[in-house]
Amino acid sequence: MTSRILLTGFEPFGGERLNPSQALAEALHGQRVGEAEITGLVLPCVFDDALAVLNQALDAHRPGLVLALGQAGSRADLTVERVAINLNDARIPDNAGRQPIDTPVVPGGPAAYFSTLPIKAIVADLRAAGLPASVSQTAGTFVCNHVFYGLMHALATRHPGARGGFMHVPLLPGQAARLAPPTASMALETMREGVLIALRTALHERVDRVVGGGALD
Amino acid sequence: MTSRILLTGFEPFGGERLNPSQALAEALHGQRVGEAEITGLVLPCVFDDALAVLNQALDAHRPGLVLALGQAGSRADLTVERVAINLNDARIPDNAGRQPIDTPVVPGGPAAYFSTLPIKAIVADLRAAGLPASVSQTAGTFVCNHVFYGLMHALATRHPGARGGFMHVPLLPGQAARLAPPTASMALETMREGVLIALRTALHERVDRVVGGGALD
Amino acid sequence: MTSRILLTGFEPFGGERLNPSQALAEALHGQRVGEAEITGLVLPCVFDDALAVLNQALDAHRPGLVLALGQAGSRADLTVERVAINLNDARIPDNAGRQPIDTPVVPGGPAAYFSTLPIKAIVADLRAAGLPASVSQTAGTFVCNHVFYGLMHALATRHPGARGGFMHVPLLPGQAARLAPPTASMALETMREGVLIALRTALHERVDRVVGGGALD
Amino acid sequence: MTSRILLTGFEPFGGERLNPSQALAEALHGQRVGEAEITGLVLPCVFDDALAVLNQALDAHRPGLVLALGQAGSRADLTVERVAINLNDARIPDNAGRQPIDTPVVPGGPAAYFSTLPIKAIVADLRAAGLPASVSQTAGTFVCNHVFYGLMHALATRHPGARGGFMHVPLLPGQAARLAPPTASMALETMREGVLIALRTALHERVDRVVGGGALD
C-alpha cells in the first residue's frame, strides 16, 4: 500500500506570491522514492476547503503514506511536527477571508493526534545528510495545523493502515528578501532534498527511534 | 467550590538555584483573591513524583481552581498555555535523573487536554494591566507539560467541576544575569501581579472571550 | 570634578507614550552616588536639537561623568555601548519629523569614539548584582548613537578630563504589553538599580578591566 | 584599476570543518565580473597573520576593489558591513590560540573606518534579485572586524583609489545541521549569486544611493 505517497503543499497566503510547499509538491509530483510514486497535491489555503480537497485525494489515491507540507514564515529549519490539535485560531484571514477563532477542526474529535511518521528518525536522517532540521511541538493554529489534524483524523477513522504527518519548511530566499531583515530562508533545492529524505525514512521505518527531540518549554 | 485556589510552582531545575514559579507559589500562599484563598504548593521537578504530590493536594484541598506555574527559560513574557499533550520527551534529566523519551504521561489517556481556564481573557487582562503576555500553543515536553497534562487528566476524571490550567513565566533577572546574554527576564513583582490578575479573571469568567491568540506556525 | 554626574534620558519616540530612559533620568535626579550628585536631564528625541540641549547642560554643569541612557526596543538586557559612530541613518522620523540618511553627526569629526567609561567593569558589576547586562558593539544609527557620538565629541574637544558613555535599556513591561509578543522588557526598579551600579563603578574605576565582552559577528 | 578584484574568505574556525567564505573565495577565483577578474584569497583565521597575508596580496595584485567575506554564525541573511572599529576583543581563541582583549587592530589608527563600497546600493540590488540582505552596523570584534579594519587602513594609507568593504554570510546548511536548532543557514549557490551581485554593483556605483538602512538600536 505504501507504493503510493501523497505529498501536499499549500497555495500562497498572507500576501505572498509563492509558497515553497506548493513548489515542492509540484516539483516532486511523479517522482519515485524506491518503489513508491509521489502524487503531489496543492491545497487551497482555506479552512475546510483544504480538507475537502485532501479527503477527495485520499479516497482517489488511497496512499499508504501522506506527508503534508506547509510554509513556516518564522522558522529557519525543516521542522517535523509531532502533534496536531483540534483547534482553529486564525491570526489572519485565510484565502477565502475566513478567520475562525477557537473552533474545532472536527467537532467531537479527539483533542489531538500524534504524527504516525517516525519523526525522530526523519530529523536524525535529515541532520545526518547536512540539512538543518528539528522536531516541532506545535504546528500553530492556522490552516497548517487544520490540515494536519484533518489528515490524521481521516487516516485514523477512514484509512486504516495508512500513515501520515506534517513538515513545515522555511521561506524561500526570494520571499525573505521582500520582508524586514533578518528573516531566515532556505533554498528550494535544500528543501527538495529534505522532503525526499523524509519520505525515504518514513517508508522504511515504521517504529520511531528513541532519541531526544523534546523542548523544555 | 472555587473558594479554594491551588497555585503550584516547581523547585529549581537544570542547574538553577532559583525557580520563579516556586517563589510565586510561596509568596502568594495564604493570600486571597476575592473570596477565594490561595494554597501555594511547590512540586518536585521530577516526572511522576510531581504528579503524586499534585494529586495528593487535589484530594486534600479539593480546589475549584488550579493554576500550575512553571519556568520558561526561553520566553520573555507571561505565557498562558492552551494545550497539554500526553507525552514526555526530556531534553535534560529531571531532578531525580530521569529522562523519559516519548513515553505517555498517562498510558491510555487522550492525546491532549485543552486548558479549562479562559486563556484569551487572561491574556487580554494581563496586557490591559501593562503586563506582557500571550497565548502559548505548546508547554514543551518536559515536567511542565507533564504536570499540566496530569492536572487536566485528574480534573477531567476525578474532580468534576474544578477548572485548571498552566502559565509559564520567564526567568528572574538574577537567573538571566548568570546566563549568556541576551536572556530575557521579568521581575518577581511583575510576575506576582500577573498571577493575581490571571486568578481573578479565571475566577470570574467561565466562558472564554472570542479574541485571537493563534499562531501561523 | 566627578562630584557632578550628568544622567540623560530621552523623551518618548516612535509612537510610545513612555521612555524608560526619561523615567530613569527623572527618578535619579538629585540622588547621590557617594559624593557625587546626579543631575537628570531629558533630551528631545530630535537630531541636532538633542545635542544642543546636551551641550548647554555640559557647559552649565561641567560634570566629571556623563551617562547617557536610551531605550532599545529590541533588547532584553542592560547594554553598555562600546562605540559611537559619526553617522545618522534614521529608519523612522525623529520627533521633529527629521529623517537624515547617511549624514555625519559632526561634519569632519572622526569616524568613531570609544566610550571612556569602564564598560567591562560595569557589565561585570551589573551581572554580579543579578542584573542582566552585556557589552554592545553598536548603538544603532538613530538619535541614541547621535547623542552618544555628540557627547563623546564634546568631551574630547571641549571638556578635557570628563568621561562619558552610553547605556541602552529595554522597554518597560507596560510598553511591551502593547506590542506584538514576545517582546522583552525590564521593570523600572531593575533598571534604576542598574544605573546606580553603573555610575558607582564608573566613578571608581578609571581603567577598565581586561575581561571578554566581544562578539564573533 | 578596478580591472582586478580581490575577494577574500577565511579558513574554518571555532571547531567548524567548513567556512562558507573560504568556499566562496575559492569558487569565484578566476571568474570575471564584466572586465574585472576575481582573485580569490583564503586568509588564516588568526589575528595579525590574516592581515600580513592580506597586505601581501594587496601589494602583489594591486586590486581596485576588495571585498572581504566572513562567516556570521548568528545571522540569517547576507549582511553588508558599514563600519570597522579599531578594536580586537576575542570571545574565543583564534586558530593560533590568540585571544586578544581590547587591543587595537592598528595602534594609533583612527577609531573606525567606514566601508567605501556602496553598501545601500548593494543591499538594494541583492534584495531586488531575491536574496535576503541587509546593512549591518557591526562586524563584531573578532578576526572579521580585524581584517575589515586592517583592510580599510591599508587602502586609506597605502592604496589610494582602491575601494573596499566587508560582507558577512550565514552558515551553510551542513554547518547548521550540526548545531542546536534553530540555526539559520543559506545555500552556497545563493551566497555565490549574492557575491557576484555585490561585486557588480560595487564596480558600477562609486557614490552610494541615499536609501535607509539604519537601526534604531
UniProtKB/TrEMBL annotation, chains A, B, C, D:
Where mainly located?
Answer: cytoplasm
- Gene Ontology terms for molecular function: pyroglutamyl-peptidase activity
Q: Catalytic residues per the record?
A: 81, 144, 168
Listed CDD domains: Peptidase_C15 (cd00501)
Where located?
Answer: Cytoplasm
Q: Which PROSITE patterns match?
A: PYRASE_CYS, PYRASE_GLU
The processes (GO biological process) annotated in the record are: proteolysis
Q: What is its EC number?
A: 3.4.19.3
Annotated Gene Ontology cellular component terms: cytosol
Keyword Protease belongs to the record? yes
Query: What is the superkingdom listed in this entry's lineage?
Result: Bacteria
Q: Cross-referenced SUPFAM superfamilies, in alphabetical order?
A: Pyrrolidone carboxyl peptidase (pyroglutamate aminopeptidase)
A Pfam match: Peptidase_C15
Q: What class of enzyme is it?
A: hydrolase
**Catalysed reactions, as listed in the record:** Release of an N-terminal pyroglutamyl group from a polypeptide, the second amino acid generally not being Pro
Q: Could you tell me the keywords of this UniProt record?
A: Cytoplasm, Hydrolase, Protease, Thiol protease
What family is reported? Belongs to the peptidase C15 family.
* Assembly description: Homotetramer.
Family annotation (PANTHER family): PROTEASE FAMILY C15 PYROGLUTAMYL-PEPTIDASE I-RELATED, PYROGLUTAMYL-PEPTIDASE I
Its function, per the record, reads:
Removes 5-oxoproline from various penultimate amino acid residues except L-proline.
Q: What is this protein called?
A: Pyrrolidone-carboxylate peptidase
Specify the species.
Caldimonas caldifontis
